[in-house]
Amino acid sequence: MAHTLESDYTKGALIxxxxxxxxxxxxxxxxxxxxxxxxxxxxxxxxxxxxxxLLAMLRKEANLFSRLAHRxxxxxxxxxxxxxxxxxxxxxxxFDNGDLATMISEYSQANxxxxxxxxxxxxxxxxxxxxxxxETYKTDSAEVHQIVHRNLRPENILLKLNGLIGLATLRxxxxxxxxxxxxxxxxxxxxxAPEALAGEPYGTMADAWSLGCIISEMCxxxxxxxxxxxxxxxxxxxxxxxxxxxxxxxxxxALLQENVNVRCSVVDMRHNPVLIQARSAVFIRD
Length: 286
Fold this sequence. Notes:
Strand order of the largest sheet: 1-2-3-5-4
Number of domains: 2
Radius of gyration: 19 Å
CATH topology of the largest domain: Transferase(Phosphotransferase), domain 1
Order of helices and strands: HEEEHEEHHEEEEEHHHHH
Number of helices: 9
C-alpha cells in the first residue's frame, strides 16, 4: 500500500498561507511530536503558472532541501505527491513562532521598534544561511556551482521561540554554474534587486540586495521600496535617526548599493564581528 500524508499523519489546524501553499500542523500517530506540512495544489485554473511548471519547481525544491544541511534550512521529514488530486505535501520541522512578516506587522501595529539585539540575531542568521547557499562547490563533473535564492521576503522567513530562523522555501532558487549570471527575469517585488528588475544578468548579489531591504524593513517597520524598485531619496537608509547603531546602518547600506560592483556580498558580510557575536548567541540556545 502506497504511503500518503493521510496514512502517516493527522493533519491539524491551518497555521499559515501564502500565494502557492497552505501550511498545517500535523502529528504522526505513533508520537506526540508536532510538525508542519506545506500543501500545494498544482492543478487548477487559478494557478499563476502551469501545473507542469509548478510541479517541476516543487521537485527541484525537494531535491535541494534533501541535499542541503544548515540549521536555518527547515529539515524535510517526508514528501508526498498525489497525482489524482494534484496535491503536493512536504512535512517539515515545526517553526513555532510564525514568520518575519507577521512579527514586523505586530511591532508596527504596537508602534514599537524591534530591538536591535533581535534585528542582529535575525540578520546574522540570514547572512549565515545565504552564505552557505552562495559559497561555490564542485560537482562530480568539476563544474563550479552556487545557489541563488531569488525569493527572499519576510513572509518566507520562519521563526522559532528560541530565536532560530528558517528559510521556508527554495521554490525559485537556482543552482547555477559559474561564471554564468543570467537567469529568468524575476517578477516585480519590493525585494528584487535593480539589476534583476531591469532584466540584466544577476547572481548572488541580488540576494544581498534583498537581505538589505528586509533588514531595513525590520528597523523602519515599512517597506523601503514598492514593486517598481529603488526610488530617488530612499538611499542611503537612515537608521541612526530611529535609535539604531551606526554599525547596523553601515552594514545595511553596504548591501543596498545599486551598483552591484560595490555591493557587499553576503559571504563577506557573514564575517562581520558584530554579526558573528549575534549569531553565536542564538546558536548556543538551539
